[in-house]
């Protein structure tokens, strides 16, 4: 099966996850089950610390903060196995998003 990165972008809030409504948190907890229902498999999953904890490297310069400044920050990501991009996109659509979006990107496999 092909592997895809599912990147979750959300607008950051001062309280982080604590500001997330309970129904959205519950929807996140159900994502693995929904992925299985769609025939995919989560290989690994991670939530990220706030973007203020990021450190970026550009050539020889190291700076505090994320590599790309935007209204939304990378909130987390997971790697899935899916039959094809259509199935990966269907899986990406089950991720609950409050004010952001999801990017699905095929991974290079050898």
The number of distinct β-strands equals 6
Q: Report, as a whole number of angstroms, the end-to-end distance.
A: 12 Å
Quickly count the helices.
Answer: 3
**CATH H-level name... which superfamily?**
Dimeric alpha+beta barrel
Strand order of the largest sheet: 2-5-1-6
Q: Helicity, in percent?
A: 10-25%
What average pLDDT do the residues reach?
Answer: 95
* Beta-strand residue percentage: 35-45%
Order of helices and strands: EHHEEEEHE
| CATH domain topology | Alpha-Beta Plaits
Largest sheet: 4 strands, antiparallel
CATH architecture: 2-Layer Sandwich
Rg from Cα? 15 Å
CATH class: Alpha Beta
Shape: flat
Poorly predicted regions are none
Labels describing this entry:
110 residues, alpha+beta, Alpha-Beta Plaits, 4-stranded antiparallel beta sheet, two-stranded antiparallel sheet, 39% strand, YCII-related domain protein, YCII, Dimeric_a/b-barrel
Q: Overview of this structure, please?
A:
The relative contact order is 0.35. The model has no long low-confidence stretch (mean pLDDT 95). The protein has 3 helices and 6 strands; from the N terminus they run βααββββαβ. The chain has 110 residues and is α+β, with helices and mostly antiparallel strands. It comes from Actinoalloteichus hoggarensis. InterPro entries: Dimeric_a/b-barrel, YCII. Belongs to the YciI family.
How are the SSEs ordered, and which strands pair?
Layout: E1 2-11, H1 22-29, H2 31-37, E2 41-47, E3 55-58, E4 61-64, E5 72-82, H3 85-92, E6 100-106
Pfam families: YCII
Protein name: YCII-related domain protein
InterPro entries: Dimeric_a/b-barrel (IPR011008), YCII (IPR005545)
